[in-house]
Amino acid sequence: MNLRAPVTLLDVAQRAGVSVATASRVLNGGDRVPRPELQERVRAAAAELGYTPNAQAQALAKSSTNVVGILVHDIEDPYFAAIANGVMRAADERHLLVMMASTFRDADREIAYLSSLRAQRARAAVMIGSRRTDAEQLARTATEIEAFLGSGAGLALVSQAGMPAHTIEPDNRAGAAELARALVGQGLRKFGILAGPDALATARDRRDGFVAGLAETGLEPVAVRAGEFTRDGGHAAALELLDNKLDLDCLFAVNDVMAVGAMSALRERGVDVPGQLSVAGFDDIATLRDVWPGLTTVRLPLEQMGRRALELAIEGGEPRTETFPAEVVLRESTPQR
């Protein structure tokens, strides 16, 4: 079999009658731009020979690639998927290539992925997750973030305040407090909270915001149960509350997937929603369109948050935090009583 050898930069330089360095500056980019006539000769030679520029060589010449990395805690979670979709749409509009990795909420994996993107000279990255509360993990993550930014790349984080980079932050506390006040306004009084893991600041902020909203009306929760930040976590926590035979008229889950799990648990036990027990969540994920009764929740502009994160990562500059407001959406799962 007669395989044609790939065309090299040397071949292009010889055809154009220029040095390899000049050919590289024309085709791969660089600080020193050759004269227009030389650029024309090099590009004509490359076209005649069918030369394709080497992406790694371009990265070395330009100090970065056109790659944007997305690091997400759990791509199966509709909350994270919606934000990632916003990042990807904004990247596509800028003709940037997206590489995405799921960290499965593992801090070491997140740090390793960010380090890998730095080694590959990524132009920017967006980290989407729920901020942890472990001081040692936070310190190691901050160190890698500083190294990543020091390489000249851009970075923005979503729901991970306190890091030395641009941050998009949903107003979790205010949204949860507003929800609590709205539910009390519907006549609900006896609340159980499906709180999520205390190690995740997002879960803790929503729990604390809801408790604060209740306190403004002179109430406090009947029970608070921690659980995984997942559908199964909400299912298990709801069953635990039912087994304890507590006197409740509403369950508040700190995210929608937990709320969906709780509703499934209630159906299994023959508890009517909302006839016997109301349920509310947080996020307003797209999959709620298929849930009945419609879930009362707190809406966040998830795709817009992702878009803005990409914009900030590309813009660079001094770190800034932008907060996105939350909006209570009352649906059939919490009727007026």
UniProtKB/TrEMBL annotation:
Gene3D superfamilies: 3.40.50.2300, lambda repressor-like DNA-binding domains. Keywords: DNA-binding, Transcription, Transcription regulation. InterPro entries: HTH_LacI (IPR000843), LacI/GalR-like_sensor (IPR046335), Lambda_DNA-bd_dom_sf (IPR010982), Peripla_BP_I (IPR028082). CDD domains: HTH_LacI, PBP1_LacI_sugar_binding-like. The keyword Membrane does not apply. Residues 7-62 form the HTH lacI-type domain. The keyword Transcription regulation applies. SMART domains: HTH_LACI. GO terms for molecular function: DNA-binding transcription factor activity; transcription cis-regulatory region binding. This is Transcriptional regulator, LacI family. It comes from Kribbella flavida (strain DSM 17836 / JCM 10339 / NBRC 14399).
